Structure to design on (355 residues):
């Protein structure tokens, strides 16, 4: 039997809108105490609440190791600004940033901006893929040693190590270079939910972490295999993808029998599969799916963040660690190191191009 790949775990820390930083800091620190790879913070133009990316920028200096992945909607936003904001989060977190790429499909959301009407999902995901592409190019537009900061010569930057990206997309064009130096990770981690068909090709082409919402390990593995094939068709190494099963989790009653397989469980919540049971049952499900080779890990969305995340970390994760299935400490300092992903080389430095 082939050796199991390392198990990866992540959790959502959002819920009803909260405007006190201490709430999100406490949840992120709780996840960090369990050595989770990263936390996500959901966001949407369709509901009120603080900006997820700004909130996690506040959480960053209050944490040390856990990855920070805000939801970033690429529709109705400027790719140049998106790339700058995500790069800034990577700097303030010292290399722990990612971004969960989503699109905005409703006419109500479009009216908030008044720039254009709503568009079909395939068109929006093509645009989202182009946003991810140009962001990576902008992050590469500064070579790692472009900054000089020499007071003796009065030179701040080596202009020979800045590069124009000259990107032309279907909905926008960007010349560059970026205004933020290349992030510590080179490229912050890209997370995309690849469950729905319109998003799957963008996930295969651009994502480092692909989320999959399916009720059985067999169906999850089928989506994973499809994403890996598409990634290979785009010239990517499929082994560089991390595929996580996405579960909405209710651990409110530790005595409730868990729903085996999930397919016949309660109605799906948050567009995905729903788990109800105790921390031990959740650990058993994670163990079963991972040992079957269906996924590289799980992204867990607690129904009640404060209550359920505590039970996930101190119950489920502790049991997985006791079974030697999940680490007890972080292997490095960056999110890419947590996920076992290499730091990308700079495409312009390799090519030797100059402004």
């Amino acid at each position: 039997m082939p050796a199991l790949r390392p198990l990866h775990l992540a959790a959502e820390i959002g819920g009803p809108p909260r405007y006190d930083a201490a709430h999100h800091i406490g949840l992120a620190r709780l996840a960090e105490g369990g050595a989770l790879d990263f936390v996500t913070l959901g966001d949407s133009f369709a509901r009120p609440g603080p900006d997820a990316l700004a909130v996690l920028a506040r959480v960053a200096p209050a944490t040390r190791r856990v990855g920070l992945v805000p939801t970033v909607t690429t529709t109705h936003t400027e790719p140049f600004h998106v790339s700058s904001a995500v790069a800034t989060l990577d700097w303030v977190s010292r290399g722990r940033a990612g971004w969960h790429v989503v699109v905005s499909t409703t006419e109500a959301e479009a009216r908030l901006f008044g720039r254009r009407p709503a568009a079909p999902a395939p068109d929006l995901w093509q645009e989202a893929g182009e946003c991810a592409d140009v962001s990576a190019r902008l992050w590469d537009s500064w070579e790692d040693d472009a900054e000089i900061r020499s007071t003796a010569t009065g030179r701040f930057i080596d202009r020979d190590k800045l590069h124009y990206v000259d990107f032309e997309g279907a909905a926008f064009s960007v010349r560059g270079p970026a205004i933020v130096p290349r992030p510590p990770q080179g490229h912050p981690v890209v997370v995309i939910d690849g469950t729905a068909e319109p998003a799957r090709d963008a996930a295969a082409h651009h994502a480092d972490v692909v989320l999959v919402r399916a009720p059985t390990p067999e169906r999850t593995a089928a989506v994973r295999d499809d994403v890996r094939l598409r990634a290979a068709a785009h010239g990517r190494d499929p082994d560089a993808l991390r595929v996580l099963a996405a579960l909405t989790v209710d651990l409110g009653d530790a005595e409730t029998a868990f729903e085996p397989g999930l397919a016949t469980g309660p109605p799906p919540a948050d567009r995905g599969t729903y788990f109800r049971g105790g921390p031990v049952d959740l650990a058993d499900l994670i163990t079963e799916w991972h040992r079957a080779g269906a996924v590289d890990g799980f992204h867990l969305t607690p129904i009640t963040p404060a209550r359920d995340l505590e039970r996930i970390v101190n119950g489920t994760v502790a049991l997985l660690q006791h079974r030697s299935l999940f680490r007890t400490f972080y292997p490095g300092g960056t999110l890419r190191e947590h996920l076992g992903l290499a730091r990308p080389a700079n495409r312009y430095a390799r090519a030797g191009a100059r402004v």
Summary: The radius of gyration is 20 Å. The longest strand covers residues 242-250.
